[in-house]
């Protein structure tokens, strides 16, 4: 019985991997942003720099230096010209993954072991 369970899990993993590799992403133009483009305007009175003890972290100079600065990164990309498009796609990732996983589970029942 455990051998069948392992085989199904491996099969599901392979389906997920194949699906992920087969999806073609849209290529967005790459641009290096500078202060003239608004770099450094991530923070305002309601979205302040993160602090760890005495250290104040600035996304514009340190990038995503730790996991807690992910919000700073998202705030930055959402404020870019195509920010609404990126926000929509990022927020749909979990739902799309869940749908793909459910489809893989349904299809795995048709695989003879």
Descriptive notes:
- The structure is a single chain.
- The chain contains 4 helices and 2 strands.
- Strand 1 (50-52) and strand 2 (55-57) form a beta hairpin.
- It has helices at residues 2-22, 59-62, 70-78, 83-108, and strands at 50-52, 55-57.
- The longest helix is centred in the last third of the chain and has 26 residues, at 83-108.
- By secondary structure, it is mainly alpha-helical.
- The chain folds into 2 domains: 1-28 and 100-113, no CATH class; 29-81, no CATH class.
- The radius of gyration is 21 Å and the shape is elongated.
Task: Put the structure in a nutshell.
The chain has about 110 residues and is mainly alpha-helical.
* Estimated radius of gyration: 21 Å
Low-confidence stretches: none
Multimerization status: single chain
Describe the sheet with the most strands: 2 strands, antiparallel
Question: What does the secondary structure layout of this molecule look like, with pairings?
Answer:
Elements: H1 2-22, E1 50-52, E2 55-57, H2 59-62, H3 70-78, H4 83-108
Antiparallel strand pairs: 1-2
Record keyword descriptors for this entry.
113 residues, mainly alpha, 2 domains, two-stranded antiparallel ribbon, 4 helices, 2 strands, 53% helix
């Amino acid at each position: 019985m455990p051998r069948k369970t392992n085989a199904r899990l491996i099969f599901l993993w392979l389906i997920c991997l194949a699906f992920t590799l087969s999806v073609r992403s849209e290529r967005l133009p790459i641009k290096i942003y500078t202060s003239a483009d608004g770099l450094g305007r991530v923070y305002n009175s309601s979205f302040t720099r993160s602090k760890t003890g005495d250290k104040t972290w600035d996304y514009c100079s340190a990038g995503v230096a730790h996991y807690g600065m992910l919000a700073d990164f998202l705030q930055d990309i959402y404020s870019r010209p195509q920010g609404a498009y990126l926000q929509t796609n990022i927020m749909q990732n979990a739902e799309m993954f869940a749908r793909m996983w459910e489809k893989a589970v349904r299809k795995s029942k048709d695989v003879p072991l």
